């Protein structure tokens, strides 16, 4: 794999001199488009989408169709709708339950994480308070601690508090997003003019009112961005629920899918790879849709103050 | 790699100067207090508890006993642990440069303005980031297989026998491919966002001075995004040392190749949840955390010093 991947950078390098046309010197704002570079990028896109295409195609196959047909083409039977229906009805509709659990974890976990990050980032950007440096140092330092190093002690702690095997065990740790805090801090520092806050305070507005009426509207693109990334982190989380939850009724989609997949390996286990594949497709569609539809917002949120002149 | 943090907008900026004429007050705590409280509960308390746990051992006779640093000396002599560390170190040395190299080239290509359909490329290459590690690993795991997968199809279509990608000799590379697929787009976005911050007037000035595209990349673009490069490298190091999801989900398909101590994280998980050795597991996790921080810190120092 490594050889084929490293081959393309080498090719890019060889084409470089051709790109450097003398004409570019006179039109610095509009470089000449390159077909070759576009073709190389298309290869990269191919690598990105082939697994996704494979997923879409194979979610239309029955269990026997999967084994008999070519991986990148359709089988004779088109069973997508049957697969979707079976996924939702298998085992008394446990998949629907997992979907609702995931939504619950996202709404409370990612929503809460975003709220805390917005408030904290605003404080770091616009207030000078005792202990500010310490807060910052501890948060940044903690980012370097491998999250999984915390998993076992967190599990034992939560277990003593009677929180394991409840939704809280998944939601509470999701509430903290050091990256979200950092992003909101950078974003708030640039998006909110301090003069505006001073004017509001001069007019006698309280800090709470200033935050809601002056700061919050200016923070909107940053909030969408942080919300989207905390949503991905919560939606896709696997390790935390894996250690915290035993009862399949509380599983999120990720844990449920891996349980379905590994039951084929257990003796007498039902082989339902067609449902694993269709379930996987159903799991990724909402997030991909969210990224595509909200593209404009999250990209402007990431590029805070970074528009080229 | 669940805890890998999402991209950073741009080169880290120095702390914004405190607001002018703003008095130091406790008002800021009203806003940051909730974050700090939850942070203390889910970050600081577990770290402290973990250190406490690592100093005890649950003995058959006598129950939980204070053993000082015995767990640490045991871990330092533990072959299973060190072979897992060696494995993720190899993974780090090979996979991370490939992934970041591709991400950087893609970001530079997008930023060059020489592509047709630029926004299509940007969003498409980023999309795998939205795919959970579980789904990514299941997809690739099926595709690697000879039964339902592409490898089987290629073998029968061309009459060849590709190496078994799930065999012990290949499985680490196969995992590397999955991780690369998942995170190239994410790192690309970090680099691309940082590149967008550079004022175009710099390029114009350089072009007037006769600098070509490669010179501009080498002398302006790369130095300008050094901070983003360092951050992406550090996140990738942390991610590699934490490797767990991909091998653990791939394991049912590759029982002979992936052992339950395949990575340090997998080892701590198995110790704790299959072996009930919570104290020893906490010790291993702490040592791994320290190794990760030391390596990440060294990279940060080196990255910031280079060419500064």
Summarize the helices and strands and which ones pair or pack.
The complex is a heterodimer of chains A (309) and B (308).
Chain A: H1 2-19, H2 35-58, H3 63-68, H4 80-126, H5 132-143, H6 147-160, H7 168-174, H8 178-191, H9 194-202, H10 207-235, H11 239-244, H12 253-262, H13 273-293, H14 295-302
Helix pairs in contact in A: 4-7, 4-8, 4-10, 4-13, 8-10, 9-10, 10-14, 12-13
Chain B: H1 27-54, E1 56-59, E2 63-66, H2 70-76, H3 79-111, H4 118-126, H5 133-144, H6 150-158, H7 171-196, H8 200-208, H9 213-224, H10 226-241, H11 245-250, H12 264-273, H13 278-305
Antiparallel strand pairs in B: 1-2
Helix pairs in contact in B: 1-13, 3-7, 3-10, 4-7, 5-7, 10-13, 12-13
Extended strand count of chain B: 2
Q: Which protein chains make the most extensive interface, counting residues with beta carbons within 8 Å of the other chain's beta carbons?
A: A-B, 131 and 129 residues
Helix- and strand-based class of chain B? mainly alpha
User: What's the N-to-C terminus distance of chain B?
Assistant: 32 Å
Helical percent range of chain A?
over 70%
Report the C-alpha radius of gyration of chain A, rounded.
25 Å
Structural class of chain A, please?
mainly alpha
Poorly predicted regions of chain B are 1-13
Mean pLDDT of chain B: 86
Q: H/E order of the elements of chain A? A: HHHHHHHHHHHHHH
Could you tell me the radius of gyration of chain B in angstroms?
23 Å
Mean pLDDT of chain A: 84
**Major β-sheet profile of chain A:** none
Helical fraction of chain B equals 55-70%
């Amino acid at each position: 794999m490594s050889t084929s991947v490293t081959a393309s950078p080498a090719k890019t390098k060889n084409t470089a001199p051709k790109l450097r046309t003398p004409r570019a010197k006179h039109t610095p704002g509009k470089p000449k488009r390159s077909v070759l570079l576009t073709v190389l990028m298309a290869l990269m896109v191919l690598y990105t989408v082939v697994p996704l295409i494979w997923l879409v195609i194979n979610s239309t196959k029955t269990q026997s169709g999967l084994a008999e047909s070519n991986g990148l083409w359709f089988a004779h039977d088109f069973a997508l709708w049957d697969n979707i229906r079976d996924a939702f009805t298998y085992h008394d509709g446990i998949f629907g339950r997992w979907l609702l659990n995931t939504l619950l974890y996202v709404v409370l976990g990612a929503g809460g994480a975003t709220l805390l990050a917005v408030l904290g980032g605003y404080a770091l950007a616009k207030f000078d308070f005792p202990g500010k440096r310490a807060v910052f140092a501890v948060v940044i330092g903690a980012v370097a601690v491998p999250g999984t190093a915390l998993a076992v002690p967190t599990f034992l702690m939560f277990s003593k508090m009677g929180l394991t095997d409840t939704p809280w065990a998944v939601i509470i740790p999701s509430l903290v997003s050091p990256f979200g805090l950092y992003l909101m801090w950078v974003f708030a520092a640039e998006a909110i003019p301090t003069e505006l806050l001073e004017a509001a305070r001069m007019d006698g507005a309280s800090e709470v009112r200033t935050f809601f009426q002056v700061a919050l509207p200016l923070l909107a693109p940053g909030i969408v961005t942080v919300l989207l990334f905390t949503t991905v982190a919560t939606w896709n989380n696997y390790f935390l629920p894996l250690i915290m939850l035993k009862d399949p009724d509380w599983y999120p989609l990720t844990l449920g899918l891996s349980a379905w997949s590994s039951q084929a390996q257990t003796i007498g286990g039902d082989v339902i790879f067609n449902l694993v594949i269709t379930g996987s497709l159903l799991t990724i569609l909402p997030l991909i849709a969210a990224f595509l539809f909200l593209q404009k917002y999250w990209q402007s949120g990431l590029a805070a103050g970074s528009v080229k002149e | 790699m669940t805890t890998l943090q999402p991209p950073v907008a741009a080169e880290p900026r120095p702390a914004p100067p405190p607001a002018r004429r703003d008095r130091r007050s406790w008002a800021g705590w009203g806003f940051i207090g909730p974050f700090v409280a939850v942070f203390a509960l889910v970050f600081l308390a577990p770290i402290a508890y973990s250190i406490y746990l690592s100093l005890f051992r649950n003995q058959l006779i006598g129950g939980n006993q204070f053993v000082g640093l015995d767990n640490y000396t045991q871990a330092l002599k533990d072959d299973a642990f060190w072979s897992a560390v060696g494995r993720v170190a190899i993974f780090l040395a090979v996979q991370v440069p490939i992934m970041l190299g591709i991400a950087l080239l893609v970001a530079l290509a997008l930023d060059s303005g020489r592509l047709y359909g630029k926004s299509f490329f940007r969003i498409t290459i980023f999309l795998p980031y939205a795919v959970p590690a579980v789904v990514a690993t299941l997809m690739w795991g099926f595709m690697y297989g000879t039964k339902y997968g592409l490898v089987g199809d290629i073998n029968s279509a061309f009459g060849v026998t590709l190496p078994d990608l799930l065999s012990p000799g290949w499985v680490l590379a196969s995992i590397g491919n999955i991780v690369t697929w998942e995170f190239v787009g994410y790192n690309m976005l970090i680099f691309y966002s940082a590149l967008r911050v550079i004022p175009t007037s710099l390029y114009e000035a350089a072009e007037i001075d006769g600098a070509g595209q490669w010179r501009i990349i080498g002398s302006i673009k790369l130095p300008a995004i050094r901070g983003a490069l360092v951050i992406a490298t550090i996140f990738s190091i942390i991610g590699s040392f934490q490797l767990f999801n991909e091998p653990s989900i791939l394991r049912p398909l590759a029982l002979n190749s992936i052992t339950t101590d395949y990575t340090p994280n997998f080892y701590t998980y198995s110790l704790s949840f299959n072996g009930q050795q919570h104290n020893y597991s906490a010790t291993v996790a702490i040592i791994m955390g320290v190794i990760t921080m030391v390596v990440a810190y060294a990279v940060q120092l080196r990255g910031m010093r280079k060419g500064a």
